[in-house]
Design goal:
By secondary structure, the protein is an alpha/beta fold. It is built from 4 helices and 11 strands, in the order H-H-E-H-E-E-E-E-E-E-E-H-E-E-E. A hairpin with a 4-residue loop joins strand 10 and strand 11. Belongs to the 5-formyltetrahydrofolate cyclo-ligase family.
């Protein structure tokens, strides 16, 4: 049992200990597991582009799966003034640029309303056996996920297994439906 601050530190350290090769292999293993999820009849898939400096799961493999299955792919842009995400459709001519926090995001494009999104792949640092997650602490995803329709499927992606319990979960935290690791799909 740990609190979010301790878990952020632990998992940032664990991620930094992964080699580039391990990172790629584990990201590919996660993408292969994603194929087994009961999500493929859905249309609008929201995915994050990894912050390479934070050694996040490389979602490029999942992007290829979505693209190959002709799904509508949605990317977000952060609005730091109001801690909000604006969503854009991934099209052939969309421009991706890193913001001041090294987050790759669309410059602009065709906006997609939150209620259209069917599936969200959620970045995280850690998660527990109840589906709670620890992010970077800014609350962007909790706010976004709370605005999604109730049946939106929320899928965390993690290199590591779950913690037993995150002790300082609060009411505004939105639980995951699944979390995919290189070895397992955890269902909540």
């Amino acid at each position: 049992m740990k609190n979010k601050t301790a878990l952020r530190l632990k998992y940032k350290t664990l991620r930094n200990s992964l080699s580039e090769n391990e990172l790629e292999e584990m990201s590919l293993a996660i993408a292969n597991k994603v194929l087994a999820l009961p999500i493929w009849e859905k249309t609008y898939f929201h995915i994050f582009l990894p912050i390479t400096e934070h050694r996040e799961v490389n979602t490029e493999f999942i992007l290829h799966l979505l693209s190959g299955k002709d799904k509508e792919i949605v990317l977000s842009k952060c609005d730091f003034k109001i801690c909000n995400l604006v969503h854009y459709l991934l099209t052939d001519n969309i421009k991706i640029k890193k913001n001041e926090y090294n987050i790759p995001e669309p410059v602009d494009g065709i906006e997609v309303p939150t209620h259209k999104i069917d599936v969200v792949f959620v970045p995280l640092l850690a998660f527990d056996k109840k589906g709670n997650r620890v992010g970077y602490g800014k609350g962007f995803y909790d706010k976004f996920l709370s605005e999604c329709k109730p049946d939106t499927i929320k899928i965390g992606l993690s290199f590591f297994d779950p913690e037993e319990l995150i002790t300082d979960v609060f009411e505004g935290d939105v639980k995951l439906d699944y979390c995919v690791t290189p070895n397992l799909i955890h269902s909540f």
